[in-house]
Amino acid sequence: MTSEVGEIMEKLKEKKTEYEAIASTDSSVNLENIDNRIIIEVLSPESVTPTQYFGSGSKQYMPSGSQAQAEVQGLRDQIAQMQASTVEQIAEVQLRAEAVEREAAAAAMAVKQSRKYDEVQLQL
């Protein structure tokens, strides 16, 4: 595992702990799909704080039915974009990790061949 992947995993664990702490004190917080929310937050270039995401209890409002539907659709669109972006970012990280693994394997092979060459030279 590369250090970048390790850092991302650590951030994911920290955020999950943070969200669970908020949920334990605020019964209105819905933890459904929390893992997806955390992944989006950690991998998003503009991270959102839990308070920004869940909102505060003092600023509640009731939109009309059509406003609520439009807002829900907008949020669904945002989620779809974030999920697509997250999938792309994960794929990029995996590709980088695979490239590093290939480079390490090639370097190990070169060292092995160099040692064999040196052994043959010593025998001559």
Automatic annotation (TrEMBL):
Coiled coil location: 65-110
Top-level taxon of the source organism: Eukaryota
Keywords noted in UniProt: Coiled coil
Name of the featured protein: Segmentation fushi tarazu
Organism: Gossypium arboreum
Organism taxonomic ancestry: Eukaryota, Viridiplantae, Streptophyta, Embryophyta, Tracheophyta
